[in-house]
Amino acid sequence: MIGSPRDSSALPYRPNVGIALFNRQGLVFAGRGRSAGPEIVEPGFDWQLPQGGIDPDEDIVAAARRELAEETGATTVSLLAVTEDWWAYDFPPYAGPPHKLAAFKGQRQRWVAFRFEGSAAEFDISGPNGDEPPEFSEWSWLPLAEMPARVVSFKREIYRRVALAFSEWAVPTSEATDGQR
């Protein structure tokens, strides 16, 4: 073990945006994630939706577009909805090597729903995510309602809220587009 678990009770939450990217079939983009600092991926619960930090004074939708492009390559999207409230989750105990997220108790998030309007050729998860390695090792279109059961336990309640808040877009639209996997 590299260190001992820290007492995170006095630490702040990191401002963060989560993204539900829907295709025309009503499925969401989900990626198989990797462990990053205190965001430990639990075996068998490694699927998640794109998310990332919000820069100081950055607009929520602008942050969501930036994070989505950084993590997936997707930019041809239309805005569907934004949650009004902040939802927080705590990181599990962490005793690993130094990591930028270790300065936080967890993350407080607002969520943005987009409709993907482009072609599958837009997606590229192989590039670095800023100064971090790629966020995802693979991706798929999955039902939003299944995401709480596929994500790590410490994010599960947030994903239940997301599934409820964005359920109206988790249905097929009348116009299917080419390039949707």
Structure report:
This protein is α+β, with helices and mostly antiparallel strands. The chain has one domain: Nucleoside Triphosphate Pyrophosphohydrolase, CATH 3.90.79.10. It has 3 helices and 8 strands. It has helices spanning 60-72, 147-150, 156-165; strands at 13-22, 27-33, 47-48, 51-53, 77-82, 87-90, 106-116, 136-143. The strands form 2 sheets. Strands 1, 4, 5, 6 and 7 form a 5-stranded mixed sheet that branches. A 3-stranded antiparallel sheet has the order 3-2-8, with no helix packed on it. The radius of gyration is 16 Å and the shape is globular.
- What is the CATH topology descriptor? Nucleoside Triphosphate Pyrophosphohydrolase
User: How large is the radius of gyration?
Assistant: 16 Å
Global mean pLDDT: 90
Stretches where pLDDT is under 50 for at least 5 consecutive residues are 175-181
Biggest β-sheet strands, sense, barrel: 5 strands, mixed
Q: How helical, in percent, are the residues?
A: 10-25%
Order of helices and strands: EEEEHEEEEHH
Query: What is the CATH superfamily?
Result: Nucleoside Triphosphate Pyrophosphohydrolase
The gross shape turns out to be globular
Please indicate the percent range of residues in DSSP E strands (runs of 2 or more).
25-35%
How many H/I helices?
Answer: 3
Number of strands: 8
By CATH, the architecture is named: Alpha-Beta Complex
Structural class: alpha+beta
List the helices and strands and how they pair.
Elements: E1 13-22, E2 27-33, E3 47-48, E4 51-53, H1 60-72, E5 77-82, E6 87-90, E7 106-116, E8 136-143, H2 147-150, H3 156-165
Parallel strand pairs: 1-7
Antiparallel strand pairs: 1-4, 2-3, 2-8, 5-7, 6-7
